[in-house]
Queue: 3 jobs
Job 1
Amino acid sequence: MSVERTPKTRFVVIGGYLGAGKTTLNVALAKRLKAQGRNVAIITNDQGHALVDTEYARSSGADVREILGGCFCSTFPEFLKSARSLVQVSRPDVILAEPIGTSTNILSSVVDPLRKQYPEEFSVSPFMVVVDGTRAAGLSTDKKMIPAHQVKEAEIVLLSKIDLLDDEGKRKAQEAIAALVPDAMIVPYSSRSGEGIDKILELVLSTQLSRKDLAGEDRRRFDAEKSSMSWFSSTATIRPKEKIDAYGLTTSILRSVAMSFPTDDIAHVKVTILSEQAGAKMSLVGDSAQVDGLRGGRYFNDSAHLVVNARVTAPSQRLGEVMRTIVSKLSDDMPLELGEITESCFSPQPETPTFIAGL
Ligand SMILES: Nc1nc2c(ncn2[C@@H]2O[C@H](COP(=O)(O)OP(=O)(O)O)[C@@H](O)[C@H]2O)c(=O)[nH]1
Ligand SMILES: [Mg+2]
């Protein structure tokens, strides 16, 4: 199939809160774009040392780069270097970039400098923000400030998880978003049913450019909220002594997490287990646990790689202790041995953006 190639790389930044559905959407978009014969690259971004998102995004066949250790906005030169190296190596038609779920001021500190300083290299799409459809109606009363701030920056709001909403729920969600960001287009969609994804694909491939000018908010307003949510990440090798149920293992980890913290404090916890024989990915957002994918078989007795990422409102020491216990207890409860455990756990420190709007 011949595909029209645009001379510039289409650059789409897709922001939104923890657990809203960004990675799932990027994977769905990448698969469709690949099926059309287009090259796709995904840039993932987070604070820890091993990302569930990166492993999952690679499963779409896209070239995936991760930027670790801080938000795009404070590592803009690295972000740009990554994008340019992607352009040279895999010549993507489209780059999809996912900032950290608690990122703020992405429009002014990432999208704006990209479009103003590199218009010859990149066709920068309007800034898209994914909003969890099941949480949209509560945005204005949410005690957290970051989710509403992110919505206000959007040029296009992608309203996710509409498979979980009835018509009334969809209407309320859209009303709440329109009240926060009257100038944005709203596209309801579901990564589960596929509804609305073609519309998003159309926007991704259009030549429409980002144009919104909005000064960033004083980032110090958000520092306390960002650092109240600690980050934990761990990897381990699992050596089964008998056959293990990959789905049972991920479920057991998430069940233990759900029992250890109040629902509202669980921003997003992700687990993947991957071996030659089996693979499973699961997520917990608040009290909603979902199987995101099973690959290969469900059972395995070969050596497997476990990755756990958690973002929870708790002091980092407590999050670390709880998560470490949950991981190490696996070998008490199941016929397996754990080896090569790596771990990082911390509260994110305030970041200094590379570009501040207006300066
Ligand atoms: N029902 C439903 N679940 C979704 C949808 N999109 C994402 N999810 C689930 O929401 C959870 C968080 O998704 P993820 O893409 O990791 O969110 P991110 O933190 O924004 O990247 C996962 O369990 C996904 O399977 C959707 O459209 N419908
Ligand atoms: Mg993600």
Note: The domain at 228-346 is CATH 3.30.70.1120 (Alpha-Beta Plaits).
Job 2
Amino acid sequence: MNDDTQVLVVDDDTGIREGCCRVLRKAGYEVHSAGDGKSADDLFVRNKNFAAAVIDLQLPGMDGIELTRRMHAVDPDCVLLMMTAFASIETAVQAIKQGAYGYISKPFTPDELLLQLTNGLKKRELTLESRSLKKEREKSLLEIAQERSRCSTIIKCMADGVIVANTDRKIVLRNAAASRIFEMYRADHPQEASCTEPGSVPLPCPVSALPCAELIGLIESVFKTEEEPVIISKEVVVGEGTYMVNVSPVTEGDGTKCGVVAVLRDITARKKLETAKSMFVSMVSHEIQSPLAVAEGYLNIILNDTVAADEAQQREMINRSYLRVRALREMVSELMNLSAIDTGNFVIKRSFININEVVRCAVECMHEKAKDGKIDLFFESTNGRGSENGPVVRVFADKNAMFIVLKNIIENAVKYTPTGGSVRIAVEENGLYARIRVRDSGYGIKPDEKCKIFDEFYRSKGKLTAGIPGTGLGLCLVKKLLELQEGSVSVESVYGKGSEFTVCVPIER
Ligand SMILES: Nc1ncnc2c1ncn2[C@@H]1O[C@H](COP(=O)(O)OP(=O)(O)O)[C@@H](O)[C@H]1O
Ligand SMILES: [Mg+2]
């Protein structure tokens, strides 16, 4: 242990100094020596690697006590061993007070010196070791604290809701996302007095206060299960939202269960999409099935000639089949248009067109339908700059897209107006935009449904319009097509009295 341990010997008595040096070198120490306090002090300050110093108390100039005080101030871990004649033990005690490790009375044997020094160095080694252990412990405590704060930051920032319950069935941790989920629930259900687990309630609060019986049940079942750690995953509904919940036990290092953690992932949007998708599939299937069934029926009659039908009757049946098949094709084309817009494949070719002409075409398309429903379909055009063929209102738009837009809106007006009603179409311009107003005296739209009707697949749930066939795609297509042309569509309506849809498109400048 002593190979590279440096020891300083300080004594003005050359005999003792040399003797000590010899003994210590023999024992394996690297020894330096000084004959007075001042040079010892200089040497000690210059060479900071002394593990021990053997100092005579009576030194010329700076005495041993002062030297000890200074050395102890420079390096408190250096083992300072005093050499003293029996008569000055009191002084030695004084030296110990200044930081010396011990003293040895002159005269002493080499073994006595070595024993004292080895003891001192052992003590020094223990001190240094315990200090480094303390440092290491502090470092790892710091690391643990940092790790904890990192974990808590991650949990806090997670988009998923996290709640942790202890074995007393108390929620002890809840991140911001979880607070939001339960706050939202409370906002949706202010009347529920039992809902005491909003995000702002101070923790810990009981698990039983969670506003979701299913979630409470899941947490409880993880607490109760005796099996190996399990994760229970289930979709649960909290208020208006749907969440995929993963509940798992929290265990100590020895495997004892000390709590349960539940992670709530918001899948409301995905659920909505899935519902919309399956609604779409069932609606489309239904919409496709009924015209096909009609056409199939007629064709079957004609082919099998089961009822002796004359030529005129057969023609009528073929005509009806044709109309149903045509409607079917139109619906499919509506679907294809929507999907083309959504995938960015719908090509808009804008040019200057006479919007009156497009309106007229769309109105003509609806004539037959309006006649069937005894609806007065009337188109008036004002503000147009006159021409031989009537007023011209030039707009900058895609003719085909505008036809689809207007046909949809006029078709809706006719479709959602009871027999004997009226549909009025007017075109006007204000210098910037052309406005096409389609006003009907139909069933009207409830105020809370006004913005929803432009959503994909949305169809009014009102009793009056429930039986009328449709896909809920028309207005969505209208809105998207107009957006592509810097246009817009809006609606005013009085439920039970009628509606007015207004389409705006930029005019020629
Ligand atoms: N002129 C209107 N009068 C009353 N309700 C309307 C009118 N136009 C549209 N709606 C409502 O808006 C819904 C969406 O219309 P739309 O997207 O064209 O789908 P569809 O006509 O196939 O149902 C309709 O189902 C209907 O409830
Ligand atoms: Mg429609």
Note: DSSP finds twelve helices and 18 strands in the chain.
Job 3
Amino acid sequence: MESSLQNRIYDALREVIDPDLRQNIVDAGMVKGLAWNEKDRKVSLTVELTTPACPLKGYFAAQISQVIKQSLGSEWEAHTTFSAQSGRITRETLSQIRHLLLVGSGKGGVGKSTVAVNLAIALAKLGARVGILDADIYGPSVPMLLGLEHAKPAVREKEGRPYLVPIQKYGLEIMSLGFLVPHGQATPWRGPMASNTLRQLLTETDWGELDYLVVDMPPGTGDIQITLAQQFRPQGAIIVTTPQKLAQADAEKALTMFRMPLVQVPVVGIVENMSYFWTPELPERKFYIFGESGGRMLADKYEVPFLGEIPLLEKIVHQSDAGVPACLEDGTPISQSFMEIAGETVRALARLELVSAP
Ligand SMILES: Nc1ncnc2c1ncn2[C@@H]1O[C@H](COP(=O)(O)OP(=O)(O)OP(=O)(O)O)[C@@H](O)[C@H]1O
Ligand SMILES: [Mg+2]
């Protein structure tokens, strides 16, 4: 029976796991053009990869051959070919956004949101058109950081479809799920729904032309991060860490995730937050309460740029709570730190583009 043979082949192929995705190749949508010939005992298929240089080709071919023989009989042969990045991973047309820039980390509470909003402001101060998307749909914090707890985006029609209009403040175009759900309400969504909501928030906002859309990511290395990376092919990701060992271990996980063959988001560099405690009362002293230079060491280890460090300052907490990001004030040491980080980011992105240019 045709169909039961088909099922057996698919079931067999489901035993082949992509080690990076940790998902089987069938459910990951990597199997294309499956055909078989019962008389000749042959199965042929194409495995779709993100890059023609994928180091796993030999592994996949051997695994596929093995599972087919195991399931259908040792006389069966599998012929596997490979194709690179056609339809499966689509970069949605966010054609008006020149750089989609993720700000992530493995660990919660290291200051992603603080870095994301201040970096966005610093990029705008450098003269760029900048948006910020709060992708932390479980616990959006951008509205509070920008003093927009009660903002409600308007909706406008474009080519017959409704789009959300970003809130404008401090020279930024801003969108967050926090604007759409009642203030303080929890959003207990499951993975696929969360990913879909985020995708909608990104694609159904009328961003206009932007040089940078900075995305404040939720903590972790799960579904949301991988989906966003695969569907939208961001130009780069910045990883925020603190000098603490625990935070670095999680930052390494984030780095590894962004480098997985089917994710492949270029790492722009590492920002070290809460590098040392500094207080105006003792301006000559830096207190390295979480350890020293952890972020720089991580950057060296993975050969990515170190974009800069930000001290732990009481003022940052107050300014965050007041919805007035520290970088708004000109000429302070803290805004200088963010301006430097923004400059390094722009340069690192430009270098990445040079490398990836055809
Ligand atoms: N350099 C700093 N100095 C002092 N406080 C800071 C600094 N950076 C961040 N904070 C404070 O630490 C807390 C966590 O920061 P933030 O919300 O930016 O982290 P996060 O990584 O986005 O957290 P989450 O994982 O919950 O999204 C906030 O109260 C923030 O004001
Ligand atoms: Mg956050």
Note: Confidence is low (pLDDT under 50) at residues 86-93.
